[in-house]
Design a protein that fits this description.
Elements (H helix, E strand, L loop, with lengths): L1 E2 L12 E2 L35 H12 L23 H15 L3 H17 L9 H18 L3 H32 L10 H4 L4 H20 L4 H24 L9 H14 L8 H17 L3 H15 L11 H18 L6 H24 L8 H20 L3 H17 L3 H28 L1
Antiparallel strand pairs: 1-2
């Protein structure tokens, strides 16, 4: 976890950038995007199958803005659980490619994985049943990860985009097949696979498309692609996520134009209740929404970002009295989102109402961090996100107390933030906390000098 700060006249708040899951977890997302090391790639991989970004936004926000809640790294499934899932023609190259990757030989890994992907794409889908698109896209993801790690971001970007394009075409054709099946009233049993049933994508296959779109959005940001391109990937990811949840809830029922309001109402129920099947987790649902929220926060569309952050919080944090509890990792992510909400509220001209709301969210973030670190003590990996978040939360509370002219409390928060930043070896956090403390000391000295001169 790392914290990214924005420049503003002091005192200032710090938004938090969430670290993507590590490759060891089998995720599409790689390391955190570090702005100082950003490079440019030239790519036409983003094929715009919709109008301008603002038009596509309306689809998401027609649904999300109506939810009415008062309050990445997009995950991806491990695809090589066992190499016996793959046909013999692919298995050898795939095994060798993964082995070379784990041994750090990225050139050799690329060679084997590229050959495995080319072979896989030449074979019939039936060779990869069940869930052929999950396996095929998994090979593409493995290759793309190696390419990016080996300093070939443009090739990696194209590999991800090609994989997503195949999935999008499959999703489109899958929907046509399901409609034909409903129209004919002759459902095909999944127990007897045919060419048609293999083309009907499962939930995990559609979530794979969502995860790859999130990764493309991350790369578009990291490698300085146009903002419209980043927005396109992330918006599609959220839209497809919502479509998948709708289909899951409606059990493949047809919803025509006259049922659109009912369909949107159904999404609200899905996001609030989250009665999810075993193949989808809260992280799967929350990560794309959170990623799009970060994009809108970065581009100054605060209302959109706020709505999406609230959605992500509601997904990750069970409501009080529900009897459910969030995992330590999810709780830490919630604390990050709450802290970011606090920062979003304070953008623009501060008002007493904004200060009150921002401080309330920051205090909630601190409470979540403290509770999580206490209950999950002894599991440092689970609370790593909270430890990284704590320094920024304390700094933000100090800034808010300073804005309220409570310099004594501000000093305490800044001092505690400084100690936490030192413990986490965050040079940026140390510098900002020290700067804030020196600023308050100068103000105190100036006021003391002024009182002395008047006495």
């Amino acid at each position: 976890m790392s914290s990214q700060r924005f420049t503003r006249l002091p005192p200032t708040l710090r938004p938090i950038v969430r670290r993507k899951p590590s490759p060891s977890h089998g995720c599409v997302s790689g390391a955190l995007s570090v702005y100082a090391s950003r490079r440019c790639i030239s790519s036409n991989a983003a094929q715009s199958d919709a109008g301008p970004g603002q038009t596509r936004i309306s689809t998401v926000f027609t649904i999300l803005l109506g939810v009415g809640i008062a309050t990445t790294g997009c995950g991806i499934y491990q695809f090589y659980q066992t190499f016996t899932l793959w046909p013999p023609a692919v298995r050898g190259d795939l095994r060798a490619g993964i082995k070379a990757k784990n041994q750090g030989d990225l050139v050799l890994s690329e060679r084997y994985l590229r050959r495995a992907l080319e072979t896989a794409q030449s074979l019939p889908l039936s060779d990869f049943s069940p869930e052929p698109y999950l396996k095929l896209s998994g090979i593409a993801v493995a290759l793309a990860e190696v390419l990016e790690a080996n300093g070939k971001p443009e090739e990696a970007y194209k590999t991800y985009a090609d994989a997503l394009d195949r999935l999008k075409k499959a999703i489109s054709y899958s929907e046509q097949l399901k409609l034909q099946e409903l129209a004919s009233s002759a459902p095909t049993s999944k127990d007897t696979p045919t060419h048609e049933t293999e083309l009907v994508l499962t939930g995990p296959e559609r979530l794979r498309a969502v995860a790859i779109a999130c990764k493309l959005g991350e790369m578009a940001d990291t490698y300085q692609q146009p903002e419209t391109e980043e927005e396109q990937w992330l918006t599609w990811a959220v839209e497809e996520l919502l479509r998948t949840l709708i289909d899951m809830r409606q059990h493949h029922k047809i919803a025509d134009a006259t049922k659109r309001e009912e369909k949107q109402k159904d999404v609200q129920i899905v996001l609030a209740d989250l009665s999810l099947p075993k193949w989808v987790t809260k992280t799967d649902v929350g990560a794309p929404i959170e990623a799009l929220g970060r994009f809108y926060a970065k581009t100054g569309r605060v209302d959109y970002a706020t709505t999406l952050y609230l959605q992500a919080i509601s997904i990750l944090m069970p409501p009080a009295g529900s009897g459910n509890t969030a995992s330590a990792e999810d709780s830490c992510r919630v604390a990050q989102l709450m802290s970011n909400l606090s920062e979003l509220i304070m953008r623009g001209s501060p008002t007493p109402d904004k200060l009150h709301q921002a401080e309330a969210w920051a205090q909630q973030a601190l409470a979540v961090v403290n509770k999580t670190t206490k209950t999950a003590r002894g599991n440092p990996e689970q609370i790593a996100g909270c430890e990284e978040t704590l320094g920024a939360v304390l700094f933000n509370l100090g800034s808010l107390r300073e804005m309220n002219n409570d310099r004594a409390a501000a000093k305490d928060y800044f001092a505690t933030s400084l100690e936490q930043s030192k413990r986490m070896q965050s040079q940026e956090g140390i510098l900002e906390a020290k700067t804030a403390l020196r600023r308050l000391e100068r103000i105190d000295r100036a006021e003391a000098t002024k009182k002395t001169s008047h006495s």
